[in-house]
């Protein structure tokens, strides 16, 4: 008989899976018309490839029997054969975990819009999720380095409820690496040529992401009390970030935009992800508001520093993910942390001292370093063999036409002609 929490995790998993098509709309609307389909295809390809990898060996690497606190044994349950035979009810959690791996990988694609070979992406996805995402998930959510392993024993157990380290910081750092490996777009220095081609798609995507995020953050809730905390915080943090983003634009002399609203929502959602179960509503508002300001300022750094993060994956996911992870060490409440058996009195601002903050800082540094090095090795290997970037000619014509033999928008000139022009 299905328990209530099992039913909720099934529903939550479906909500999280829906987030990846939502991301496809968000990213697709942000790109140029001639590469919109390619951008969306990278998200859908992530669903197909990562789901298969997760079932065959990814789940075992992320949650199987630990090997030296580094990763789970990929042979623990290849193809989920043993779970099906002995504990099929556990497949609900397996599927829920798969949706996290899927969207984490899809997030990276936003940094390489308009210029990445689709074939190279198809190679990158299974290698990266196997060698980077799954081990990091084991480090944070399993018997890994940042929990019971040597780093966790030294600095304290890392706290990350739904993926500040594993999902957003990891994806943001990987996105930066790919942006640097592939190099800038031809017209990077003229940002007006890269304005979103479909802002309503961007808003639609942000709305679907926010909707799905209630499952993303709340799917593993222990009980109704923890679910209530997570639900209200997942509402409040992006709301505060949205307001803060608009105010930041106004105070800097710019007009509030629909793009600012969408970006503010995402910044707040990312920031609350690791802390959703461990801060109170006021803490969620503070956390979200700071994320809105930080990310609004951070997305313009790519022009000053010269890296072409096409759709601001670094400025949104890395920055907000880092802030949300560290903020637990400031705003975490001891009684909420105790529900998940964390031995911390709370964050610095709640009388808990520096212990939790120190653990979060160390975990963030380890995540950054590991993801950067591992992703760089994978990306350079692909770039040096089959090549990761399309030619200048393909970039000029558009990836959709060359890579997929399709176009997002086909306008029939005869049908579009005015009545007076028709024969």
TrEMBL record:
Gene Ontology CC terms: plasma membrane
Record bears the keyword Magnesium: no
Ammonium transporter AmtB-like domain sequence ranges: 7-409
Cell compartment(s), UniProt: Cell membrane; Membrane
Principal subcellular localisation of the protein: membrane
Coiled coil start-end: none
Keyword Membrane: yes
Keywords (A to Z) from UniProt: Ammonia transport, Membrane, Transmembrane, Transmembrane helix, Transport
The organism's place on the tree of life at top rank: Bacteria
Gene Ontology molecular function: ammonium channel activity
Pfam families given in the database record: Ammonium_transp (PF00909)
Membrane topology designation: Multi-pass membrane protein
Segments passing through the bilayer: 6-27, 39-57, 91-113, 120-141, 161-182, 198-216, 228-249, 256-275, 281-301, 313-332, 357-382
NCBIfam families tied to this protein: amt
Family: Belongs to the ammonia transporter channel (TC 1.A.11.2) family.
Protein name as it appears in the record: Ammonium transporter
The species this protein was found in: Garicola koreensis
């Amino acid at each position: 008989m299905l328990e209530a929490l099992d039913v909720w995790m099934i529903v939550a998993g479906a909500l999280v899976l829906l987030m990846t098509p939502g991301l496809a709309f968000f990213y697709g609307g942000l790109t140029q018309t001639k590469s919109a389909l390619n951008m969306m295809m990278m998200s859908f390809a992530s669903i197909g490839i990562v789901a298969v990898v997760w079932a065959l060996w990814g789940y075992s690497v992320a949650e199987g029997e630990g090997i030296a606190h580094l990763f789970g044994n990929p042979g623990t349950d290849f193809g989920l054969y043993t779970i099906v035979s002995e504990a099929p009810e556990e497949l609900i959690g397996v599927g829920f975990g798969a949706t996290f791996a899927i969207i984490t990988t899809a997030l990276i694609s936003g940094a390489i819009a308009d210029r990445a070979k689709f074939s190279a992406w198809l190679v990158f996805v299974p290698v990266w999720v196997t060698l980077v995402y799954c081990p990091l998930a084991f480090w944070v959510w399993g018997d890994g380095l940042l929990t019971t392993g040597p780093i966790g024993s030294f600095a304290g157990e890392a706290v990350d409820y739904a993926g500040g380290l594993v999902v957003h910081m990891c994806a943001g750092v990987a996105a930066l690496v790919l942006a640097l490996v592939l190099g800038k777009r031809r017209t990077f220095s003229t940002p007006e040529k890269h304005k979103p081609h479909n802002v309503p798609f961007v808003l639609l995507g942000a709305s679907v992401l926010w909707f799905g995020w209630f499952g993303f953050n709340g799917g593993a809730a222990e009980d109704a009390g923890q679910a209530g905390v997570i639900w209200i915080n997942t509402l409040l943090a992006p709301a505060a970030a949205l307001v803060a983003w608009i105010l930041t634009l106004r105070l800097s002399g710019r007009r509030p935009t629909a793009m600012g609203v969408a970006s503010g929502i995402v910044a707040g959602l990312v920031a609350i992800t690791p802390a959703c179960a461990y801060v109170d509503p006021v803490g969620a508002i503070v956390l979200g508001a700071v994320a809105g300001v930080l990310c609004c300022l951070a997305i313009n750094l790519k022009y000053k520093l010269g890296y072409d993060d096409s759709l601001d994956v670094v400025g949104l996911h890395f920055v907000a993910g880092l802030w949300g992870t560290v903020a637990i060490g400031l705003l975490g409440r001891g009684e909420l942390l105790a529900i998940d058996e964390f031995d911390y009195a709370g964050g610095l601002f709640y009388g808990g001292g520096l212990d939790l903050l120190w653990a979060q800082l160390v975990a963030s540094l380890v995540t950054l370093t590991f993801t950067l090095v591992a992703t760089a090795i994978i990306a350079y290997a692909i770039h040096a063999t089959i090549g990761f970037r399309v030619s200048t000619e393909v970039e000029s014509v558009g990836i959709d036409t060359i890579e997929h033999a399709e176009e997002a928008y086909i306008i029939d000139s005869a049908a579009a002609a005015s009545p007076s022009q028709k024969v």
